[in-house]
Amino acid sequence: MAVVAVPAVEWVKTTDGRSGITVELPGKAEVRKATVSVEGSHVEARVYGLDTADGAAGFSVHDMPGDRYPLEDDLQRFLDSYMVNTAEPLSSSDVRKHTVDGRAVLDARLTSEGGGGTSVGFTRLIADDDHLVQVMVLGPEAKEKALKAMHERLLDTLRIP
Q1: For 59-113, how does the pLDDT look when each residue is reduced to its tens digit (9 = 90+)?
Q2: Where is pLDDT greater, at 36 or 97?
């Protein structure tokens, strides 16, 4: 039986120019800039994302103090925004709040039931002094193990100056 070699994914260090926050992503990300409304305030944000063989991966940086609002509220805004943009519900479970490197973080498992089947993923919201940072992966339920490993690598390579 022949063994087929699977090409290795080239991980690319991706830096948000405004904040200096870096994450290694499994490929070259596209950046989308946006102004989002957060409780009546306009917040500048940049989203670095890409599609992979296992699903979507990326991170976002919001130019606001990360502790301005409770991380649980930030997670709910993200879930609501996903529904508005995709017309598919996204829910969270296994929500855990703790600290990493002295920063408040909130980790959650994500699930979406859509026309294409069940999607699962993982997210971490990080409250930094000047930014709210989010790291996320999402893809088909059958790829959950690969998505979890990808998410862990993203978190391992995340650097906030």
Answers
A1: 999 998 888 889 999 999 999 988 888 878 899 999 999 999 999 999 999 999 8
A2: 97
Closest of 35, 74, 27, 79 to residue 52, by C-alpha = 27
Is the separation of the CB atoms in 23 and 5 below 8 Å? no
DSSP state of 141: G
Contacts of 157 (CB under 8 A, 6+ apart): 11, 13, 22, 23, 24
Report the amino acid identity of residue 98: H
Q: Tokens in use for 110?
A: 């994500």
Tell the residue number behind the tokens 């943009």, with chain if given.
85
Give the separation between CA 99 and CA 96, rounded to whole angstroms. 10
How confident is the model over 145-161, as pLDDT tens digits? 999 999 999 999 999 99
Whether 43 contacts 62, CB under 8 Å: yes
Q: How many secondary structure helices (H) and strands (E) does the chain include? A: 2, 9
Distance CA 95, CA 109 (A): 7
Strand ranges inside 52-159, DSSP E: 56-62, 90-100, 103-114, 117-127, 132-140
